[in-house]
Amino acid sequence: MKAEIRVAGFGGQGVITFGYVLAQAASIHDEKYALMTQSYGPEARGGACRSDVIISDVSIDYPKLSKLNCFIAMSIDAYNQFKKMVKPGTVVILEEDLVHVPENELLEDVTYYNIPSVREAETLGNRLAANMVMLGAAQAVTKAVSEESLIESIKQRFSRYTELNIKALRRGIELGKQAMGEE
Amino acid sequence: MKAEIRVAGFGGQGVITFGYVLAQAASIHDEKYALMTQSYGPEARGGACRSDVIISDVSIDYPKLSKLNCFIAMSIDAYNQFKKMVKPGTVVILEEDLVHVPENELLEDVTYYNIPSVREAETLGNRLAANMVMLGAAQAVTKAVSEESLIESIKQRFSRYTELNIKALRRGIELGKQAMGEE
Amino acid sequence: MTEQIDYYLEDYLRMDRLPHIWCAGCGLGIILKSYVQALYELEYDLDKIVTVSGIGCAGRASGYVNTDAFHTTHGRALPFATGISTSNTDIKPVVISGDGDLFAIGGNHLIHAARRNINMLVICSNNFNYGMTGAQYGPTTPRDMRTPTSPYGNIENPFNLVSLVSSAGATMVSRWTVFHVNQLKNSIKKGLTKNGFSFIEVLSPCTTGYGRLNKMSPIDMMRDLRDTCKIRKVHPTEATIEPGKEVIIGDFVDIEKPTYADVLDQLTRRSTE
Amino acid sequence: MTEQIDYYLEDYLRMDRLPHIWCAGCGLGIILKSYVQALYELEYDLDKIVTVSGIGCAGRASGYVNTDAFHTTHGRALPFATGISTSNTDIKPVVISGDGDLFAIGGNHLIHAARRNINMLVICSNNFNYGMTGAQYGPTTPRDMRTPTSPYGNIENPFNLVSLVSSAGATMVSRWTVFHVNQLKNSIKKGLTKNGFSFIEVLSPCTTGYGRLNKMSPIDMMRDLRDTCKIRKVHPTEATIEPGKEVIIGDFVDIEKPTYADVLDQLTRRSTE
Amino acid sequence: MSETIPTGKHFVHGDWACAEGAIAAGCGYFAAYPITPATEISEHIASRFPQLGRRFVQFEDEIGAIASVIGASFSGMKAMTATSGPGISLMLENIGLAVMTEVPCVIVNVMRGGPSTGQPTMGAQADVMQCRWGAHGDVEIIALAPQSVQECFDLTVHAFNLSEEYRTPVFLLSDANIGHMFEKLEIPAADEIEIVNRKKPQVFPPDYKPYEADESMVPPMACFGEGYRFYSTGLTHNEMGYPDMSVETQDKLVRRLCDKIRRNKKKINMTEETMTEDCDVLVVTYGVTARSAASAVQMARREGIKAGLLRLITLWPFPDWKIEELADNVKGVVVPEMNYGQLVREVERSVKPTPVEFIPKLGENPPSPDEILERIRRLAK
Amino acid sequence: MSETIPTGKHFVHGDWACAEGAIAAGCGYFAAYPITPATEISEHIASRFPQLGRRFVQFEDEIGAIASVIGASFSGMKAMTATSGPGISLMLENIGLAVMTEVPCVIVNVMRGGPSTGQPTMGAQADVMQCRWGAHGDVEIIALAPQSVQECFDLTVHAFNLSEEYRTPVFLLSDANIGHMFEKLEIPAADEIEIVNRKKPQVFPPDYKPYEADESMVPPMACFGEGYRFYSTGLTHNEMGYPDMSVETQDKLVRRLCDKIRRNKKKINMTEETMTEDCDVLVVTYGVTARSAASAVQMARREGIKAGLLRLITLWPFPDWKIEELADNVKGVVVPEMNYGQLVREVERSVKPTPVEFIPKLGENPPSPDEILERIRRLAK
Amino acid sequence: MFPLPKNKVKIIKSLCKGCGYCIEFCPKNVFERSTELNEKGVTLPEIVRGDECISCGLCVMLCPDFAITMEENPDE
Amino acid sequence: MFPLPKNKVKIIKSLCKGCGYCIEFCPKNVFERSTELNEKGVTLPEIVRGDECISCGLCVMLCPDFAITMEENPDE
Lengths: 183, 183, 273, 273, 381, 381, 76, 76
Ligand SMILES: Cc1ncc(C[n+]2csc(CCOP(=O)(O)OP(=O)(O)O)c2C)c(N)n1
Ligand SMILES: Cc1ncc(C[n+]2csc(CCOP(=O)(O)OP(=O)(O)O)c2C)c(N)n1
Ligand code: SF4
Ligand code: SF4
Ligand code: SF4
Ligand code: SF4
Ligand code: SF4
Ligand code: SF4
Ligand SMILES: [Mg+2]
Ligand SMILES: [Mg+2]
Prior knowledge:
heterooctamer, C: alpha/beta, Rossmann fold, 8-stranded mixed beta sheet, G: alpha+beta, Alpha-Beta Plaits, 2 helices, globular, binds thiamine diphosphate, binds iron/sulfur cluster, binds magnesium ion
C-alpha cells in the first residue's frame, strides 16, 4: 500500500500541522514508512502553503509525489494552483465553504468530497481546528493511517487544545464516512 | 651564449637595481633575451636580498637559474647563504671590504675577484653607487652585455645621479678588467 | 489580477510585480512608498537613480521600483553601490536594505562607505530581526527578546546604529519610523538631494516574524512606534534603543564634506599637473 | 647566532625565533616587549593566555610569545578569539594585530566583538599603513599621505578608531604610543586583568614603509610621537588624529558590563529552570 | 527535552536530525549565521545547547562563524557550523586555514539551488565540487552525503569522528530536500554511538612538536590552555609550527596534509552497493538522488535489465578505485545528479573507456526514477 | 608616462604588464585590496589611472573590491580586480553573482603557495581548480594562463574581450613567478590592439528584456543610467530579470549560463602546439611551467624522443576534445603542474585509456626541464 | 504635488492584505472592517465615512500595499 | 619586579638592528654609536657612560629588538 496525499491552503490554516500529524501517525504509531515535505520560501509568504505526505508499507525512495492519491484543498488559490496534479483516480477533498469548483470545471474520473471543516470546527469551539476536521475526513477517505495513531500523534504534537483537536478529528472522520456514503 | 648571474647582499645596497639595469641593458638595448627575478618576502626584511639575471641569445624558457655563471656577493650573509649554488666554472665577485672568504674555504675550480666597490663609490662621491661599481666589474668579467647598453640602461633607470652612476660603472669595468689581468 | 489597477505612482513602481511579497502590515511597503513618493515629489529623474539592495525582506524593495535596480548579495549592497557611484557620478545610488544585511554581515562595508563619504543614500529598514530567514535575533534585537535562535531570550547587546554610522563619518544621519511617514519621506528627499553619504534608519514592524513572536498585531506594533518614539536632538551616542524606554528619532548629523567622487576628481587634476 | 643570549624575559618569549622579522626601529618590537613585560610583572599564568593574530607585520607578534598562540587569517583574529573565549572561559585571548587587519578587512568582527563584550584584550598596532604588503594606505592613513597606492596623496578620511570602538560598545578603550612605553605596559596590564572587551590602540612607527615614504628616520618618528601626543581625557568622538595637530592619547572608556561568557552562563541557568 | 541524547523514535526533519547528531557526537560549540535551508539546525541547537551548558553563538556572518568554530576546536571543543552555498563560499578561506593548521571541525552544507542567491528554499547538489576545490591551494577534504533523515543523524556523528581522527574539516553535504523533509529518526542509546576523539600528545610540553606526525601522518593535538604553549600558523610551517618558507618544508607539509587523506581513502570511504555483482549497467549516485536511483534500479531489474547501484556515502575522498573496478564489466554507467555536471567528471575520470551517461537535473527535485530508468534501458541495449 | 597606451618596449614585471594590459583594454574601473604578489598591479594602476581620469578604489577587503567592480561594470565601465588565492577565496560568492547576473569583469589571480597564508611571496599553480569550482552552484568560467610578461599584457586585453563578448567574469591566472619576473614587454600601437565591447540592446527601453538572449545565448547588455530601468538579481530569474522560483526557469537559466561557454568552447579555447604531429609522448602544460616543458620537449627531441607540447593558454573551458584527439596516438601524456594534482585530473578524464604521468611541484619553483625530460623518457620507452 | 486637495480615497481590493492600518490610523475614522473577502481570503476595509475625509493622505502613505489611492473628487 | 634597582645595562649584539633608540632616548646619554658592525652589517651602539645609568629601564623597554638587558650590578 502506498498513499500520496497533498494538503494545501494559505498560511495560518494549519496545513503543515495536518501533514505532520498524519505522517507522524503513520511513521511512529502505525510503524509504516512515511515522510512529509512542505513548501517553504518567501514566495509562499501569506500565499499558498502546502504539505505532502507519502505513506507506504515498504521503504520510500523517491521523496516527491509521483501519483497523487488524495488532494485536500483548503483554499481556492490552492485548488487552482495544484489541480494540474490531480489525475484520474485521485480523491479530492474540498473545504466546502472556501472552495467552490463550478460543476463544469470538475475533473473527469476524480471523486470530490466537500467538507465544511471551518463551520464544524467553529461549532466545536475553535475554527483553528478545521485542519483536524479535514484530516479526519482524509483518514476516512484514504484509510492510509489508523484513527488511534492519529489520536496518538495529536497528543504528541499538541500540549494544549489536545481534546478539541481529537474531537475535531473524530468529527472529520464521521463527515468523511458520511460523504463516502459509509454511514 | 647564455649567462646566469646572481647578485646578493642586504637591503639598501641596490642589489635589485643592479639586476634591473643589467637585464634591461641586455633586453632592450642589446636586443638579447633577458629576464630578471628577485627575492621577495617578509623573511627578506632587512636580511638577505638577491636578484637573478639570465641573458641569452635565444629565448629563455625556464626562468630560474640552472647553471650559475657569475655570483656577485655584497655581504658575507649573502655569500654564505648562496655559496652552495657556486659550481666549478662559476665566477665569484666579492665586495672586497664586506666579504672576506678565508683562503681555506675558497671553493675549488672557482675564480674569485675582489672589488672594493664601496670604497670606490665613496671616492666618486656616494657610497650608494657601489652597486654600479660591482655591475661594471661583472660586465668586465662576464661580457654578458655591452658597456653602451649598460649606460643607456642607467640613463633610463635614473632620473637623478645618472652621471655618478655611469662613472661608477666605468670605474667598475676598469677594476674588473684589472682584476682579470686584462689591463 | 483582474481588477484594473490605476495608481498615482504607477510610473515609479513595477506595477506588474504587485502585490509585493511582504506580509500583511509589514513596514517595508511603507518604506518603499515613502521612497517612491519622495522621488515623485522631487520629480527626480528616474534614469539617474540606481536602487541597490542586499538580501533579506528589505532587500526585495529594489525589485519594485521603476529605476535601474540591483539585488545583489547579502551584506554587500554598499560596495556595489560604491562601484556605481564612482563610475558614473551622474547616478545617485540608493541602497534599501535590512538591519541584518547592513549591520550584521555588511557592517564593515557600511562604516567604510561612510568613512569615504561615498555619495549615496542608505535607507536601513530596522525591523530588529532577520525577517527573511524566519525572525532570528540580530545585531539590533533588544536584550532578552525571544526569537527562534534565542528561545530563552537574547543575550546580546544591540548596536546603536545612529552612533556607529556617525562615528564612521556619515554626513547625514537620521532615524525615523514607518509611522512617522511624512517625516520619513522628507528625510528621504533630503538624502536624495544631499551630496554625500546619507543614512536613514527606519524602525519598521516585522509583523509575522518579530510581531508574532512578541504576540503583537501589526496595529499594536504601529501604535508602539507612535507612542514610544519621540523626536529630539541628542548626540548620536545617546540615541540608544532600549526596551521600555523612549526611543529618540529625528536628525542627528547633517554636515558637509567633499564626497569621494569630488576628491577623485581633484586627484585627477592633481595627478596631471 | 653564536652569542649566548641571556634575557630576563626568556621565559616569556620564543627565544629560538629571535631576532624577529621586523625592520630596524619598527614599533612592533616595543609593543611585543610591553605585552610580555606586562605578563611578567603580573606574573600572569602563561598557560591561560592565547595570543591571537591576523596577518600583517603586527600579526607576526603572536609567533614570538611563549603562550599558546594562533596566527590566523587576515582580518579574522577576533572571531577566532571569540571561539576561544567562549569555549574556555579560563583563557584570556589577547589579540595583537595591525590597523589594517583589525579595521580594514576585519572591521566588522571588531565592532561585533565589542558589541557582544567578549572577554578579550585587543592590542592594535596602528602604523597608519599596511606594512606587510609594502606600505599602502589604509583606513588609518591621514589625508594626503603619499603611499604606493596613493602616489598623488591619500584621498580617504581615516577612522577615529577610539570613537568607532567605543560606539560599538567596548568596555575599555585607550590609545598609547610605543614611545609612551610604560603607560602602554600599564594599560596592557589593566586590559589583561579586566573582565570584558578591552581595546588599546598603539601608535607605532613603520620605519621602512611609512617612515621611508615620509622621509623620516626611526628616531624622527619616535620624536614625533613624543612631541605631538598629549595625554588628555576627551570624549572618544573628539580623539581624531589629524596631521599637524596634537594627537590625544590616554584612556577614553572604562566601564563595567557583563561579558558574553557571563551572559552565556546565565543563559544556561535560565534555560534549565 | 533536556536529555543529552534523546534515545528513541522521532518524526523530524533532516536539519533537526543533524543538530541531534552533533549533540550526540559531543559537539560543544556551534556557531552559524542564519541561512535557508540550514537555519533550522541553528534553531534546534539554540534550544538545546544552553540546557546542556554548551556554547551556541550566532555570528555576524559565516566568515566569523567558521573562524570561531576553529578557535573553539583548538580550545578543546568539538565544533560545528551549518550553512548553505553562499555561506560556504564565504567560509572557504578559513576552511583552508583549518586544513593547514589541522583543526577538526564539521561543516554542514544544506545545499540549495545556485548559482548566487538562486533558489534559496529548493534543493540541489551543485556544491559538491566546491567543497573539494573551493579553497585556494592544494586541499584534500572529507565529505559525506546523507540520503535520509536518519543518515543526517548518523553521518553527522560520523563526520565528527572522521574529523577528530584525521584532524581535518569534514563536510556534511545535505540538501534542502533532506534537510526540510520529515521522516522517522531512531536515535540509538548513548552507549551504542561510537565516538572518536582526537589523539592527544603523549609527551611533556617542552618536547611537544605540534606538527610532527608519525606514520599515521596525523600529529597528536594539544589544545589551548593545556600547557603546551604551542604556536600555529596558516603560513607554511615546520614541525614546531614555525613559519618556514623553504621549498622543502612546503613540499613536505602539503604532501602530508593531502596524503593523510589520500593514503587512507579506502579506510575513510563508505559506499553502499546493491546488485552490483552481475550488473550490466551501473548507476553511481549519492544523497537524495540515490533514492530515485534505488527505485530505478529495482524497476530495471523487474524488467530484466541487470542494473546495479553504487551509492556514495563518502563523496570525498572519491572512490575512483571502486568505480574503476565495478565499471570494468559493465556496458555503461549512469550518473544522475541535481546539478549540471559535477561528480560525473570524477566518474568519467575513473572509468576510462566505459561510456558514461549523465542526467542533469536543475531546480528543486531529484531526477525521477523514470528518468533514470530510461537511461539504464538505453545503456543496457 | 601619461599616454594612454605607451607603445614600445619596456623592461618590466608581469604585474606591470597586466596593469598596462587593462589600461590598453579600456578598463575604466579597478578596485582591489593589497595582497602579495598582486599588489604591484594596484600600485601601477594607482599611478596611472588618476592621470587618465579613470577610477581606482582601494577597498577595505576583497569582497568589497569585487562587488564594486561588478557595480562599476553594470554602470558601463570595463572593470577589473587583482588579488591572490586568499582574496579569491573571499570573492567567490560575488563572482557567482557576476556569473548569475552576467556582468563582464576581469579577475586576476597572481597565484602564490597555499593552502591558507602558505607562501605569500612564492609562485604556485594551485588555484586552477578553485577558479572553476570555487563558487557554489553550477558555474562555468573562462580562465587564461600567461607564461610570460608579454602574455600578461596580451592575455589581459584578451580577457577583457572575452568577458565583454560572453558577459561573464574572466580569470587571468598568473603566478608570483610571472608576476614578479622582469622581461621585455612590447606594447603595440593602439590601433593594433583588438578591443571587443559588450553588445548593447537595439530596442527601446520598454521593450528591453535584460535576460532575453538570441542564439548567441548572450543577452544584450543595458547599463545603469542609460534609461532602460532594468532590474537584476542573483535569484533565479526570468527574461525580465524578475525572480521566478519555478523549476523551468531555473533549468533554462542555468543551462543557458553554462552553455554559452560550453557550446563556444572551441571558439574560446586557445592552445599552442609544438611538434604534436608525430609525437609519442605529449606534454600538457600551462603558465610558467610551460616554459620548463618547452625546454624539456626540445631536449627530448634532441635525444631522438618524439615529444610534443600542448600548451593551454585557456585553461577553462578545458580543451578536452583536443587532448582526447592528440592523446589518441601517443604512448603517454605528461602533466607537470605547480600543485599536488589539479588540471591533471581533467587530462585524465579526457584521455581515457592513455597513461598519464603527473609531476607535482610544490613550493616556489616550476619543475625543471630535467624533471620533465625524465618522465618523457620513461613514457617513451 | 501630493496630497491633492479634496480628493476621494479608493481601495484597490486586489492589493489589500488587510493589515488594518487605514482603519486604525485615519484621523477621521473613514474606514471600517467589512466582511468582504478578496481572492486571498483577506477581509477588506471599506469606506464608510468618505464624506469626512480631509484628504490628508495619511492612509495612502501608510498603506503598505499600495492599495489606497485618491481619485479626483467628481463633486468639484 | 622590574625595574631592578642599580643594575647594569648590557647590549646583546647579535639582536641589535641599529635603530638608535637607546642612543637617542636614554635620559643619561649612556649610549653612543660605535663603529663596530655585527654580522648583519649593523653599526652597534656602545655603552660609553655606563656609570651614569640610573637603571630607569627605558632603554630596555624601548629597544624593539630585545637587545638590551640588565645585569645585576656586580658592584653591589
Ligand atoms: C551569505 C549569506 N548568508 C546568509 C544568507 C541568508 N539570509 C538571507 S536574508 C538574511 C537576513 C535578513 O535580515 P535583514 O537584512 O535584517 O532583512 P529583513 O529580512 O529583516 O528585512 C539572511 C541571514 C544569505 N542570503 N547569504
Ligand atoms: C584575504 C587577504 N587579503 C590580503 C592579504 C594581504 N595582506 C597581508 S597583511 C595585509 C595588511 C597588513 O596591514 P596591517 O594589518 O596594518 O599590519 P601591518 O603589516 O601594518 O603591521 C594585507 C593586506 C591577506 N593576507 N589575506
Ligand atoms: S517576515 Fe517580517 S520583514 Fe519579512 S515581509 Fe514578513 S513582516 Fe516583513
Ligand atoms: S614594514 Fe613597517 S610595520 Fe612591517 S616590520 Fe617593517 S617597519 Fe615594521
Ligand atoms: S492599509 Fe492597505 S493593506 Fe492595510 S487594510 Fe488598509 S487598504 Fe488594506
Ligand atoms: S486621506 Fe486622511 S482623512 Fe481621508 S481617508 Fe485617508 S487618512 Fe482618512
Ligand atoms: S636604564 Fe635608563 S639610564 Fe640606564 S642606560 Fe637605560 S635608559 Fe639609560
Ligand atoms: S635600541 Fe636596541 S636595536 Fe636599537 S640600537 Fe639600541 S640596542 Fe640596537
Ligand atoms: Mg531585519
Ligand atoms: Mg598597519
